[in-house]
Design goal:
The chain is of the alpha/beta class. It folds into 2 domains: 40 residues, no CATH class; 203 residues, Rossmann fold, CATH 3.40.50. It has 10 helices and 11 strands. The strands form 4 sheets. Strands 5, 6, 7, 10 and 11 form a 5-stranded parallel beta sheet that branches. A two-stranded antiparallel sheet has the order 1-2. Helix 5 packs across helix 7. The longest helix is centred in the middle third of the chain and has 13 residues. The termini are far apart. The C terminus is likely disordered.
């Protein structure tokens, strides 16, 4: 009887992960099933400790050898971009549900807990896209993390080109061309150790373009923190197969 009264007074909350009316147990966002699925999406040990790309059979990481970490000192991320993680990012980026950021931000914070940075810099949106969306999801994540670690968030970068969405471009080289000269400096970063923040890393083209501008303008070091690492689309089949091996 008591449970029925509680259910009437407190109607079920919709889980942001599965969309079902269920008991929420994680930050007023996820149900028990989705919390477990989120746990299953954590990056395994089968990734390069430097760039988080899936390891090949070689002792060296192909992504690092090919310059994937150019201008970046390290990369951090808690999850694979798959399942529940992908759904949360979609809710955050395209459905205007900022609450979806909290489970991601909590896990991102744990990745860099205890590591010293002078500032966090969110990857910027172009002004037109920012106006359409109403907020920058990378900035939302950075500010939530800042509440935990006290590292200031500065909008040190400005997006000067309204580029195509990187997710719509399948060829790695084309992604690099898409963001070439797309960013400019917007604040003093000289001598600072910067943590660049974004939602998802795929090929790393956007992060490299941002890091290049920061380093050229005097940043001492730039590391990357994202909520997830995704396999690139299209022609990079070897990378994609290695990524899928992580779930086997």
């Amino acid at each position: 009887m008591l449970n029925r009264i509680v259910d009437l007074l407190l109607p079920p909350v919709i889980c942001l992960g599965c969309g079902e009316p269920r008991k929420i147990i994680m930050g007023a966002a996820l149900c028990e099933n989705c919390v477990q699925e989120l746990e299953d999406m954590k990056l395994s040990e089968n990734v390069c400790p430097n760039c988080l790309s899936p390891k090949t059979q070689n002792s060296s990481c192909d992504y690092c050898i090919e310059g994937g970490m150019l201008n970046l000192s390290a990369a951090y991320a808690p999850y694979h971009y798959h399942g529940i993680v992908q759904r949360l990012v979609v809710q955050l980026k395209f459905n205007s549900i900022e609450d979806a950021a909290k489970p991601l931000a909590d896990a991102m914070y744990e990745c860099v807990k205890g590591i010293s940075f002078d500032a966090m810099v969110p990857v910027p949106l172009h002004a037109r896209r920012l106006q359409d969306r109403g907020y920058n999801q990378a900035e939302v994540l950075a500010k939530l993390i800042s509440q935990k670690n006290g590292i200031p968030v500065i909008t040190a970068l400005k997006r000067t080109k309204n580029t195509r969405r990187q997710s719509s471009i399948s060829v790695v080289e084309k992604r690099s061309e898409n963001v070439e000269n797309a960013f400019s400096i917007n604040a003093d970063v000289k001598g600072k150790k910067i943590l660049l923040v974004d939602d998802v890393r795929t090929t790393g083209s956007t992060a490299r373009a941002c890091a290049k501008v920061l380093i050229e303008n005097g940043a001492y070091e730039v590391a990357l923190l994202t909520g997830a690492v995704a396999p690139p689309r299209g022609d990079d089949k070897k990378w994609k197969l290695n990524f899928l091996d992580l779930f086997r």
